[in-house]
Design brief:
heterodimer, A: about 110 residues, alpha+beta, 4 helices, globular, B: about 850 residues, six-stranded mixed β-barrel, 28 helices, about 15% strand
């Protein structure tokens, strides 16, 4: 797996991290590290996300009631905190998804390949 | 806090897990374990910071966390300087406590509705007459009846008359309570409509009925809750029982609710006045009914005034003999019942407000002083990355903590003060006022508590933070600006204190003048008390006369008793009764409209030490069957006989055309005060006890060391069934009549004392700080040989500058305040050089004392040490 040069990495757009986390959790409950791995793999390692920075986001989403957490047995014979989408979270994800689609479409229309 | 710890632990575990699992993956990828862990950490980011940011996501966590941290820090800081904390908390407790207590009183007296149904619709109706100088007089019965008949603005009218009565409850209850009888009771004689118009429902039984107003149906009574409990043991079967009032049987029909109080809070029995129905047709004089009414819903006071004026005008036309110029006046009932309490209460409320401001500026001052010593602490913390807002917030938290502790203590003080007022000076408040801690008062206390840190905390907080950022170690500019601020604060404290001191000087002077007024009798070494001879054992006038004479004789035999006398109405106990009177030889139809009648035994003048100015005293030759005689007071002689001697002249009760016997004036005696030490003396005439004896008399016994028990013994040796009521040393008569004045003067004096103390503290603090700042300069000056007195003067004059400025402003403020409250003064002008010089003198003397200590410290500075300090 060839490592991309640092310059190729993409800064995350403001406010999109939450959406990405919700999206990741759509496939089922996952712990923090797992969410990070999923984002990394899903983006082919192109996204510039510090693993640690997921945690404030996860806690914020939990406070907002968009995800819920539960301690469960996990790898390494340790328990881990698993997050899963709540109903409100799913609703929010749908809303974000359609907003995102519109945004991409609109921006894409303006930024037509020259 | 368990929950908090758990959450914290879970976050740690969650992050540990992430680090471990990443490290594990790195190991699997072939890295050595140690390096794998390091890489994991590195890619995770700053663990501490991430934890912190995550915590901030927890709802309500950080602000609470921060606050509790600040509070703990504040408490630590305060514990570190206990002196400051103590002074601040104690003064805050005083400031907040006095403000809250006074608010409680103001609320009870001025803001609370009267404890009657729809009290806003209750109005008092009085008569006015410029011919008689009446501005607010009780009404004559027939006028009352016409008002009641003709008006359409009131639902109904009622009247009352303060009255004293003598209760004989029956022998078994007398034995039970151990009271000799009859017992003197303060009460009211009222119309049958009284309680219905007030809208008061009895706790037991029923209220009076309209028809019970009049003679024939009036032998019914209502008891106060207190009397029912104390005297009748709360007898549940009291209704329908008979009690004896003034030796006539009355049937108890009701017991009043426990919190019911009317004008006089001592009132224990209400009974119908029982006036003849004919009075309400015929009697347009004298005027003795205190009238009030309830406005119909939707009728305004102005409409009522219009209609009542019209009625009065009609009566004036119909009955010119009695009603010429007789007008009507309508006041709110609250205004009447709270009497003259509005102005003094506003005065005291203003005073506590000032005290509160002084407290706040004093603490601000102390904090400014502390701020500079804490500048280093703040500097370090700023350098370590603390936010400025956070630092200021922390200082404000400190202020808030101080204020909350002080406020809590203050509320306790306020509660205690209210109990004290009720216990020791109940007459200082109108009867209806109920002072107790309730939501409103607590709320006021809380608001004041929260207001205080805003007043005393904000400026010092920002000043301290600004100062610490500049870190201008050598600079005097910053310190100078702050010293300026502190000087302004001191000037404010001084100005406010001067207002309070001047105000209390004026009130105290008024009190002294008032107590120095010659009451016309000698209140020292004499006692006074009331006895009533029961009609059962003293049925005839002659029996009553002999009874009182025997009691007088028995009292005279008490060792130490010099003289004994009897009087119907002792001095300073108000009016007995008043009447029209006609001096002999006046032109047709001319008569005097206000005479106070009194009655005395021959011994009274000597016992009370009232001077006989002209003529003779009563003597044993004035008998029931000899010609009627009078003693008159000096004012009567002056008003009725216009400079001529009254002795040998004749006067008769009533108007020229009234049937009455002429009575000879045999002597003129000195005026004695009647309605109060500050009230004008009215014309008064005494008739001799022997010619018209009364069963209820006040006895005066002069002599040193005469006590309650000796008196009781002496009276009991004549008749053990005669009760002694209201026994007191004669000087209590004066003390009672000046009580309100004393209450005001001592409260304001207390406030002024505290204010002075705080101002002194402020002056001292500022100057001490200044001296410590200038220690080097002073050291240099000393080393260069500056004379000590000059240095001393330099320091003192620095300290006195804000004092003098503040005192000047304060004197101006005091003069304005004194003008506004002029009517509370007695015998002293609102603006007079003596009081103000005295005030300024006190302020300057206290301020000089406060300056002396720092100044002494300054000139004792050892030049070497202060220079080495650099």
């Amino acid at each position: 797996m060839g490592k991309p040069a640092p310059d190729d990495k993409v800064e995350l757009l403001q406010g999109t991290l939450d959406m990405l986390i919700l999206r990741t959790l759509l496939w089922g409950p996952q712990h923090g590290h797992g969410v990070g791995q999923a984002l990394k793999q899903g983006s082919d390692d192109l996204l510039k996300i510090e693993r640690g920075s997921l945690y404030p986001a996860l806690h914020r989403l939990e406070e907002q009631g968009l995800i819920a957490s539960e301690w469960k047995a996990s790898e390494l014979n340790r328990r881990a905190k698993y997050y899963k989408l709540t109903a409100a979270g799913k609703k929010r994800l749908h809303a974000e998804q359609s907003k995102w689609n519109t945004l991409v479409k609109t921006i894409g229309r303006i930024m037509k390949p020259a | 806090m368990d929950f908090r710890k758990k959450r914290e632990d879970e976050l740690n575990e969650e992050i540990d897990f992430d680090l471990a699992i990443e490290a594990e993956e790195n190991v699997r990828a072939g890295l050595p374990r140690k390096e794998a862990m390091e890489r994991s950490r590195k890619e995770f980011g700053n663990v501490l910071r991430i934890k912190e940011v995550t915590r901030e996501m927890w709802w309500g966590w950080t602000s609470m966390d921060r606050l509790s941290q600040d509070i703990r820090y504040a408490l630590r800081q305060l514990a570190r300087s206990p002196g400051f904390a103590l002074v601040a908390i104690a003064t805050l407790a005083l400031g907040i406590g006095s403000a809250t207590a006074m608010f409680g009183v103001v609320r009870a007296v001025l803001l609370s509705p009267l404890p009657f149904a729809e009290p806003d619709r209750l109005v008092r109706i009085t008569e006015t007459n410029p011919l008689k100088g009446w501005t607010s007089s009780p009404a004559a019965p027939a006028n009352f009846a016409d008002w009641r008949k003709e008006n359409t603005v009131f639902t109904d009218l009622a009247y009352f008359m303060p009255s004293e009565m003598f209760l004989t409850a029956g022998s078994d209850s007398a034995n039970r309570s151990g009271n000799a009888e009859p017992q003197r009771i303060i009460g009211y004689e009222v119309s049958g409509t009284f309680f219905d118009v007030l809208g008061v429902k009895p706790a037991l039984g029923r209220a009076f009925r309209e028809e019970e107003s009049y003679a024939g149906n009036h032998r019914v009574a209502m008891l106060s809750h207190g009397l029912w409990k104390d005297r009748f043991g709360g007898d549940p079967n009291i209704l329908g029982k008979t009690i004896s009032l003034d030796e006539r049987n009355y049937q108890v029909v009701g017991v009043l609710p426990p919190n019911f109080r009317f004008d006089d809070r001592r009132a224990q029995i209400f009974r119908p006045a029982g006036l003849r129905q004919s009075f309400f047709v015929e009697h347009r004089r004298p005027h003795y009914l205190s009238v009030f009414a309830r406005l119909r819903p939707g009728v305004t006071e102005a409409q009522a005034v219009d209609q009542m004026n019209a009625i009065a005008a009609r009566l004036e036309q119909l009955y010119p003999l009695t009603n010429t110029k007789m007008g009507v006046r309508i006041d709110g009932m609250h205004h009447y019942l709270s009497k003259g309490d509005r102005l003094p209460l506003l005065l005291l409320m203003g005073a506590v407000g000032m005290l509160f401001l002084i407290v706040c500026s004093n603490i601000a001052n102390l904090q400014l002083g502390r701020g500079s010593t804490r500048a280093r602490e703040f500097g370090i913390r700023l350098a370590l990355g603390a936010g400025r807002a956070r630092l200021a917030g922390q200082l404000l938290t400190e202020s808030l903590v101080l204020s909350l502790i002080g406020g809590g203590l203050g509320l306790a003080l306020a509660a205690a003060a209210q109990n004290l007022i009720l216990r020791y000076a109940p007459e200082a408040l109108p009867a209806f006022a109920e002072t107790r801690m309730d939501g409103w008062i607590l709320g006021f206390g809380l608001v004041v508590t929260l207001l205080a840190p805003a007043l005393f905390g904000i400026t010092p907080a920002f000043s301290a933070v600004r100062e610490s950022t500049l870190q201008d170690r050598s600079g005097n500019q910053q310190a100078g600006a702050k010293r300026g601020l502190r000087a302004v604060l001191v000037a404010c404290e001084v100005a406010l204190s001067v207002v309070l001191v001047a105000g209390s000087a004026l009130l105290i002077e008024s009190l002294i003048r008032l107590e120095a007024v010659d009451p016309g009798f000698d209140p020292q070494r004499a006692v006074v008390f009331n006895v009533v001879l029961p009609r059962v054992r003293y049925p005839k006038d002659a029996d009553a006369r002999q009874g009182v004479e025997r009691i007088e004789a028995s009292l005279k035999s008490i060792p130490g008793a010099q003289s004994v006398g009897a009087v119907l109405m002792p001095p300073l106990r108000g009016a007995g009764w008043t009447a029209d009177v006609t001096p002999e030889g006046r032109p047709d139809g001319d008569y005097e409209r206000e005479l106070r009648f009194n009655c005395a035994s021959p011994g009274f003048l000597e016992a009370a030490s009232i001077r006989l100015l002209r003529g003779r005293n009563f003597n044993e030759f004035d008998k029931a069957d000899t010609d009627p005689v009078f003693l008159v007071n000096e004012t009567l002689e002056k008003v009725y006989f216009r400079g001529q001697s009254a002795v040998g002249k004749r006067i008769k009760l009533g108007r020229p055309y009234d049937e009455a016997k002429w009575a000879l004036v045999v002597g003129v005696v000195a005026d004695t005060k009647q309605d109060g030490m500050d009230a004008r003396v009215r014309p008064m005439a005494y008739y001799p006890f022997s010619q018209q004896p009364s069963r209820s008399m006040w006895l005066v016994v002069r002599g040193a060391g005469i006590g309650d028990s000796m008196i009781r013994q002496a009276v009991a040796s004549v008749d053990p069934g005669v009760a002694i009521n209201d026994f007191e040393p004669m000087d209590r008569l004066i003390a009672d009549s000046t009580q309100k004045h004393r209450f005001r003067a001592s409260l304001l004096g207390g406030f002024a004392g505290i204010a002075l103390f705080l101002a002194t503290l402020g002056i001292y603090g500022v100057l001490a700080y200044w001296v410590s700042q200038r220690a080097t300069e002073i050291g240099v000056r000393l080393a260069l040989g500056a004379p000590l007195p000059r240095l001393f003067r330099m320091v003192v004059s620095e300290g006195m500058r804000p004092v003098l400025a503040g005192a000047l402003v304060g004197l101006l403020g005091a003069a304005a305040a004194a003008k506004a409250f002029q009517t509370l003064l007695f015998g002293v002008a609102a603006i007079n050089p003596l009081s103000y010089l005295l005030t300024a003198g006190i302020m300057v003397a206290v301020a000089l004392a406060a300056c002396a200590l720092p100044a002494l410290r300054a000139i004792r500075v050892d030049p070497l040490i202060s220079l080495r300090g650099q």
